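Usage

Read records sequentially. Each one opens with the input sequence:
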Amino acid sequence: MNPIDQLRFSVRDLINDVEVGPAHVPLALLGEFQKDVADFLKGTSRDVDPTQVQVSIESGSLAFAASGLLAATTLWLDVAHLASPNALNLIDSKRATVLERWQAVARENPHRSYSVADEAGHVFLVVDARTNLIKIDDVWVQVEKYLHGKVVDMGGKTKANVHLELENGQTLTVSSSHDLLAQDERNRLYRPALLHVTAEENLLTGELRNLRLLAFETHQPSYDDEEFKLMVERGTKAWEDVVNATEWTDALRGGQA
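and closes with the structure output:
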């Protein structure tokens, strides 16, 4: 999903048989919705400062159009997850709390609904009385893995560990023992490495925690350009006297294809 600059948050309701809008909105609802929008925008990472966001109130339902969001990386990642049935498990916990609150209110009021859309009118999510957002408890399992990356730090006076930067830029802290690091004779700092580790892995998100180093493994790249060239040279030399490779292969097979 390509980030855009604006998100539109709207709430619909029927108060005293009149639709909620800029000219008719209870003060309590206005305050609650404003707080929910602010909480959703900033999340726990606070990559959006609500005080710096430009907001306009639009007609129709009560709608806040928030602009100036182009650089809000985690916000747009979470917005992309809103269509998933597991959205509450995939997005920032503070944003998930806002959606859970909207769902609880909508279930008690059949006229209430909330939506999140972009400036072009594409709706990412609608929360109403029929919505069934479910948050599944985290499931962690013990695993063994091989992790390839670059060692950017290692050692430690009291707690030994290795900091491994993965190819996606994420850095993992892998605990170790002083003896294991002391016995390793190679200088691995700022060099590619393959680590054999134990860890706990989240079955929903793939997140790893409590990583522990079992061993440094010998890294064998899947492709070696020099080795490939050598194999081509050997093959070319071995087949240089064969005029027709297909006939020669058929002859070895007894004339059967």
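Summary fields computed downstream for this record:
- The helical segments are 27-42, 73-81, 87-90, 93-108, 178-183, 225-238, 245-252.
- The first strand starts at residue 6 and ends at 12.
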